[in-house]
Amino acid sequence: MSPENYAHLSNLVIPTATVIYILAMVSHTLEWAMGRAVVTEAVAEDALVTSAVGAGTSARAGSAGGADGVTSAGTLTSASGSAGASATSTISGASAAGGGAGDAVRSERADAASRVGLLLTWLAFLLHLTGVVTRGLAAGRVPWGNMYEFSITSSLAVAAVYLLFVHRAKLQWLGLGVTLFVAAVLGLATLALYTPAGPLVPALHSYWLVIHVSAAAISGGAFTIGGLVSILYLVKARAERRVLDGGTMSASLKRLPSAEAMDGTAYKVLAFAFPLWTFGVLVAGPIWAEYAWGRYWGWDPKEVWSLVTWVVYAAYLHARATAGWRGRRAATIAIVGWFVFIFNFVGVNLLVSGLHSYAGV
Prior knowledge:
- The chain is an all-alpha fold.
- The protein contains 10 helices and no strands.
C-alpha cells in the first residue's frame, strides 16, 4: 500500500473506533442505570410494605376500641387484626420475593451490559491500534510527531492500560470512565487537532523521540486510570460511610469493589507509572533537548509542567510510604496529579507558547 492509502485507512479507522468506543460507553451507562433501577424499585416496595403495616395497625387499634362493649365484636376485631397482620405478612413476603427476583434479573442484565461494553472496547481498541499503526506507516515514522498523533497514541495507551489491568485487577467496573475519556480525546483530535501525515520538523529527528514519547504516553495512560479510580474511590468511600450511619447504598455502587480495594488499585497503577514518567520525561527528555537545542534544561513551559507533574506524584508516593496516607487524602493528591497532567498535555500545548508548541510532547 502507498502512504496515501495508509493515511486514508487511518483517517477512516480512527473515527470508526471513536463510534465503537461511544457504543461501549452506552453499554456501560446501561450497566449503571440498571443498578439504579434496582434501588428505585426496592424503595417503592419498602414504601408499599410500610403502608400495609400502617393500615393493619390502624385496623387493630379501631377494633380494640369497639371491643369494650361487645365480646363478639372483640372476637371479630381480633380476627380482623389477625387478617390485617396476615395480609401485611403476605404483601411483605411477596414484595421480598418479587424484589429478589427482579434484582437478580436486573443484575444479570447489568452483567450482560458490562460484558458487551468490554467486548466493544476490545473491538474499538483493535481498530484504534490499526489507525495508529497505519498513521505511522503513512508518515514513515513513529506516529507521535504532533498534537493529533500524540492524542490518538496517548488515548490508545489509556485503553491499553485499562485492558491490561481489567483482568489482572478486575477493573471492568471502570469501563464507563475509560470509554468516555478515550472517545472524548479521539473526538477532539479528529475534529480540532487533525494534521495531515507528513515529515517531522528537524528537531524531532532522533531515536530519543521513540523513548521519550512512548514512555510519556504509557505513563500518561496509567495516570488517567489512576485518576479515574481515585474519583470513584471517593464516591464509594462516601457511600460506605453513609451505610455506617444507617443509610443505603445504590446497587450500582455495590457493584464496585470496596473503597479499600480501590485505594490499593490506584496505588499499584500509579506506582507502575511513576518510574516510567521519571525516566521518559525527566531523563530521556533532557537528553533529547540537549541533542535538539543544545541544552538539557531551559525552563520551557512544557518542561516546567512536566516537573510539576512529577513532584505531585512523588508527593503521592512519598506520603503513602512515610506518612501512611491512605484513602481520601491520597486519592485527592492522585486526582490533583491527573489534572496537572491533563493541563500539561492540553493547556500548555494550546495556550502557552514554547519550544514544544509544534508537538504534543
